[in-house]
Design the sequence.
């Protein structure tokens, strides 16, 4: 059995989740609402609570990789140019799994 601390595993999942969000936005021509992203992450076994997803989106927003707007009580998420660069592997950002051509998302 692996003896990695839980926090290390949570960090690994968070990095994968961040890249998966960026890739989903990239595949959806740059924007989606949080419900679509939550469904996508669930299918990839990277989901969590709505709060988990919103925290992920907030972190990516603070890094300039996406921006969020609100439509009522739902977040709408838009990929930035920097987010596109991370998604395609042209830039590496701490907290986001490094994108590769053969990535899982």
Sequence:
């Amino acid at each position: 059995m692996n003896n990695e601390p839980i926090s290390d595993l949570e960090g690994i999942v968070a990095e994968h989740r961040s890249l998966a969000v960026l890739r989903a936005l990239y595949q959806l021509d740059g924007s989606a609402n949080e419900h679509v992203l939550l469904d996508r992450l669930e299918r990839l076994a990277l989901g969590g609570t709505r709060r988990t997803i919103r925290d992920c989106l907030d972190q990516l927003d603070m890094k300039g990789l996406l921006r969020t707007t609100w439509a009522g009580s739902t977040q709408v998420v838009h990929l930035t140019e920097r987010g596109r660069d991370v998604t395609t592997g042209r830039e590496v950002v701490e907290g986001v799994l490094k994108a590769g051509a053969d990535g899982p998302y």
Q: What stands out?
A: The longest helix spans residues 6-27. The longest strand covers residues 66-71. The two ends are 27 Å apart (CA to CA).
